Amino acid sequence: xxxxxxxxxxEDVRFSPYVWRVRMSLMHKGLPFxxxxxxxxxxxxxxxxxxxxxxxxxxxxxxxKDSFDIALYLEHTYPDRPLFGGELAEGQARLLNxxxxxxxxxxxxxxxxxxxHSRLDDKNGAYFRETREKFLGCxxxxxxxxxxxxxVPFRQxxxxxxxxxxxxxxxxxxxxxxxxxxxxxxxxxxxIASEFALFEVDDPIMAWTDKMLDMFDGYARKAKxxx
Amino acid sequence: xxxxxxxxxxEDVRFSPYVWRVRMSLMHKGLPFxxxxxxxxxxxxxxxxxxxxxxxxxxxxxxxKDSFDIALYLEHTYPDRPLFGGELAEGQARLLNxxxxxxxxxxxxxxxxxxxHSRLDDKNGAYFRETREKFLGCxxxxxxxxxxxxxVPFRQxxxxxxxxxxxxxxxxxxxxxxxxxxxxxxxxxxxIASEFALFEVDDPIMAWTDKMLDMFDGYARKAKxxx
Lengths: 227, 227
Fold this sequence. Notes:
- The structure is a homodimer.
- The first copy, chain A, is of the alpha+beta class.
- Helices cover 56% and strands 8% of the residues of chain A.
- Chain A starts with a strand and ends in a 9-residue tail after the last helix.
- The mean pLDDT of chain A is 97.
């Protein structure tokens, strides 16, 4: 299996939040995979899956795009060690996936966007700056400048995750599964691209993050940081 | 089975969002139940469950409080017609439950709070006004006055639900289950207490709401409105 991932100017720095959702899902299933680096301006490898974004999975000729569709593909093709555990759970998971994308990704993005730019080479960085500044309506540096203010409502918006982790050990209950990888994968994006602290050290989300970093023999903890 | 519910000055007007989550769950399981009205200032009936809030379920002497715990109780006691469908799904559902409570309930509350007050008798209304105005830091009428502005970010915050319903028929996939009842139940609160339109008529959430109102022979559609 090949997983196509976004990388920085340092090829070993892999920061896509969606790729991390899939990485952890593959580890959960115990499926071996190779990672293939892709840059913003070099997305030819993704064309086999008719995709313009990572992640893309190539499972011996079966090409799948979109992190959530890849998770569903893995679940249906390799049903051992469930990521969801049934049709109702898959339905619910789509809602959680949308929540993580619409709420978490959108809130985190402006707080780390100039840091992400710093991880890119000149050519990819110029492309990133142009497209993202158009989206943001300001410079990357302006978006990030008031992140100490932006982080306050972000932390509040994470109350559902925080409260859940006060009632149970993982977001999927007594052991981690896809919902954990979805939220954690999104946080890995910030961890790898930026030194900015999204949470206070005593936030219950930090204790859970630590457990997630330790999983699979410290797989995520060993990931190369971009700074 | 007895379900203890909050009611207005008209005893047949039952508007608690948490009660509606349980009502729909009981209908889903096909379990017969009686509804017992409770008012804000008359919560003696809830003491058997050591609860100060509705809903409370009395299943022939087994008392259960909290809408999510009641749903779990029903799932484990009456496993036919699953509401969740497994441990991972129950874990995920707690996160969705927290999201619906932290995000939906908190956003909707100030937009309908004076309308809720109008549904109460003088004594319960005075109690409601005093406690809720302390919580809000303004009068009920002030909180509700700018609801045309408040509804804009609320509609945006519902993007996860909207996007999910564009990919699948119900929040639990191809058929409704607990996640649907959780979100729909929260919307029943506004439907029964207030004439204010939370969504534009062409919002995909409205089409799904219509399907939910039709379920179980139009059970929710027949509920008495408070106005």
